[in-house]
Structure formats: structure tokens, C-alpha cells
Amino acid sequence: ENLTNQIAAGEVIERPASVVKELVENAIDAQATRIRVEVKKSGLLEVAVQDNGTGIAPDQIDLAFMRHATSKIANEHDLFNIATLGFRGEALASIAAVAHVEILTSTDGQLGTRAGFAGGAKTFQEDAGSAKGTKITVRDLFYNTPARLKYLKSPRTELMKIVDIVNRIALGHPEISLTLTSEGKVLLRTSGNGNLQQDVANIYGRKVAEQMVKIESEDPDFTVYGLVSKPELSRSSRNFISILLNGRYIKNYALASALLDGYGTKLSGKKYPIAVVAIEADPLLVDVNVHPTKEEVRLSKEKELSRLLTSAVTDALLAGEEDPLFRL
Ligand code: ADP
Ligand code: MG
């Protein structure tokens, strides 16, 4: 119970894109190598996420949908040593409270389970054949919380937020094949073959990908890896900067600034690079338990990491001036 109290409760699900983010992160936590995301009506009619991960055993279904039930931390020590993306055990419970949810899952690819939830309660559970992995379908989001619906932006904007989060997760996981479709139309498909530059080409275009330089650096606490644009390629918005910490997309102002510092005076005024930066850190240095949606992260040794990132960018841009561009 103490553990439960240590986990701050909060609103996890603000909009369709939150559903997509939580379900995809769960799939990644379940070691999926292939993840399909399908949305209808900007995710308000339906979000379906299918993975080829571990699956959930029949007797674990209730637990998975229970608030504060997580298979990912067993004790208070684990709470400060979090390697997986999820750990609060809030997402599925929160989603099931504000939508109609159906799950089809199997741990062995033969016998599996189908179950439904509505308004936070289970409506049925039965045996069902299924491929190994999990498919969770979320329908009629916010059907019982009309106030939430009022806060949403236009369908177009909500869809863009879904595209944005899937793109960023894809960039953070070139080793996972991710597909996003909307109304049956493919908006993103990554190969999962581990080639970050190819994924950048997929998402931002081939021209952009060819103008990126590789950054790679480490110290005893952190490794930094990614692609950053040459100064000529800058954009007038910060939105093209993606920073991933231990595989999770994060927002961190200090690190974004450190990245910009690496450009020195090469970027004029209100210009920002296109960048994908994956940071690996000892989970003990990361306090993810700050914000319910976990995008805001507190870091020990943030100054050291900032310096590492800045110099990695500076070095890469210098090397990029000398070397011919690497090709896809
Ligand atoms: P958390 O991710 O914080 O543990 P969630 O509510 O997101 O909490 O998920 C609850 C639990 O359900 C997870 O701990 C995991 O055991 C199980 N689970 C959820 N999604 C999947 C999935 N796609 N594959 C396998 N297990 C899953
Ligand atoms: Mg989760």
C-alpha cells in the first residue's frame, strides 16, 4: 500500500494520442518487434494497437486493468530503478474507465483470451485463438466524460498529435517495425531493421535524411546517439527535435538547449535543427516519477549530460563539414 501511495495518481489520458502512446509503450515493454496502430476518426471512434510481444495470461487480465497494478515494479527499490516505459499501472485502468476496450491476447500463439471492459468494469472474458501478442481496441473514447471531449482540438489536430507521437516513438526504436494507419490509409511504416537514417527518411523525407550527421558520444553515465541536421537544414520550430531517454520520448528544456548550444552561432535567431537524439542512462539517474504522462523527466547529472550532448553535436557538425555525406 505504501508503494501505491508513492505513485502519484493523475490523469493519464487527455486525448486520443495519449491512448496511442500508452498502448504502444506497453507493446514495447512487452518486447514487441512489430506494432500496428490503427485509428479511425482521429482515434475517437477507434484506436487499435496490435503487437507480437509476450501477451497476457488469462489469469492476469483483471490485474492488467486494475489501477496501480503493474507487472513492472515489485517493490520500492524498483520504483527508483525503472527500465521499462510504463510502471504506474494506470494506463489500461484509465483507458478502460473512459472508453469501451476489447483485448485479444495470447502468450503462446495458440490459446488466448478475449475480454471486454466498459466504464471501468469487465463485461466478458472468454477463450479465443490468437497470434502471440496482444491487440487492444479502444472504442468511443470519452463516451462517458463529455467534458473531456469539449477540450479536444479539431479532428485534424488530434490526428496530427497521434502521427507526431508515433513518429517520435518510431525514431526512438529503429529496431521495431511500426505501422500507423488512419481510416485504412498507411501514414507511417518503418522497417524495424535498425536503420535510424532510413526512419528519418521515412518521416522527414529523403532530402532531410541525407543532410543529417551522426552524433555518437559517451561518458561513464550516459551514451548519446542520433542524427542531427546540418545548420542549413534548420526549421523555424522546435517540433523537429526528438529526445528519447532510455527509449522514451521526453520533454526536457535543458537538453534541448544543450543540443542548440552545439550549433554555436551556426544557427541564426529563431532557427532550430531537426534532430533525433537517443540517450541511454542508468535508470538510477532518472526520476520519471514526476508527471502522469511521464514526458517530463528529472535527471541527476543533467549538467554533465548537457555538456556531453553539446560537444557531441559540435564534433559531429565539424566532422560533417569535412566528410562527404553518407548515403542511404
Ligand atoms: P504499466 O505499463 O504502468 O505497468 P499499464 O496499465 O499500462 O501499466 O499496463 C498494466 C499491465 O498490463 C502491465 O504491467 C503489463 O503487465 C500488462 N500489459 C499491458 N499491455 C500489454 C501488452 N501489450 N503486452 C503484454 N502485457 C501488457
Ligand atoms: Mg503502461
TrEMBL record:
GO biological process, alphabetically ordered: mismatch repair
GO MF entries: ATP binding; ATP hydrolysis activity; ATP-dependent DNA damage sensor activity; endonuclease activity; mismatched DNA binding
Domain named DNA mismatch repair protein S5: residues: 200-318
Listed GO CC annotations: mismatch repair complex
Keywords: DNA damage, DNA repair, Endonuclease, Hydrolase, Nuclease
The keyword DNA damage is assigned to this record: yes
Function: This protein is involved in the repair of mismatches in DNA. It is required for dam-dependent methyl-directed DNA mismatch repair. May act as a 'molecular matchmaker', a protein that promotes the formation of a stable complex between two or more DNA-binding proteins in an ATP-dependent manner without itself being part of a final effector complex.
Family in the record: Belongs to the DNA mismatch repair MutL/HexB family.
Protein name: DNA mismatch repair protein MutL
Organism: Lactobacillus porci
Lineage of producing organism: Bacteria, Bacillati, Bacillota, Bacilli, Lactobacillales
Gene that this polypeptide is encoded by: mutL
